[in-house]
Amino acid sequence: MDDCLFCKIVKGDIPSNKVLETEDALAFHDIRPQAPVHVLVIPKKHIASALTLEEDDVELVGRLHLVAKQVAKDLGLDEQGYRMVTNIGWYGQQTVPHLHYHVLGGRQLSWPPG
Ligand code: AMP
Ligand code: ZN
């Protein structure tokens, strides 16, 4: 989508600090990290949020989880654990309407979120 921030990152029109790239996914450091490690894992295809997922996206979503797992291993989060979360819509405080998983780690996280 032309005016989507993360589509622009996928195209390379906006720079990102890449961690990992596959055929259909991209992982890059969040610009405003909320933990020592804060990476975003996104599909290259524009999907607005988890709320607009279709049956055809099932395999893609599975692969996003595998990318997140690889990111966690590469950045040393696998031993202590981490959190993977996707915000959806207004109440979920989603600010970028392109599906993304936050991978947060490197410190003890609290629960429940605010
Ligand atoms: P959310 O609020 O769940 O939609 O998450 C969007 C995330 O994108 C936030 O954590 C932002 O800090 C992050 N973000 C916004 N712009 C950029 C950018 N240009 N590069 C990397 N991360 C970004
Ligand atoms: Zn997009």
Give a written overview of the molecule.
The protein has a five-stranded antiparallel β-sheet, covered by helices on one side. Helices cover 21% and strands 22% of the residues. The protein has helices at residues 5-11, 58-74; strands spanning 18-21, 25-29, 37-43, 82-85, 101-105. It has 114 residues and is an alpha+beta fold. The model has no long low-confidence stretch (mean pLDDT 97). The protein is built from two helices and five strands. The termini are far apart. The structure holds adenosine monophosphate (AMP) and zinc ion. Residues 1, 4, 6-7, 46, 98 line the site of zinc ion.
Order of helices and strands: HEEEHEE
Structural class: alpha+beta
Number of helices: 2
Distance between the termini: 31 Å
Number of strands: 5
Mean pLDDT: 97
Helix content: 10-25%
Oligomer: single chain
Bound molecules: adenosine monophosphate, zinc ion
Q: Sum up the overall morphology in one term.
A: globular
Strand percentage:
15-25%
Radius of gyration: 14 Å
> Numbering strands along the chain, what is their spatial order in the largest sheet?
1-2-3-5-4
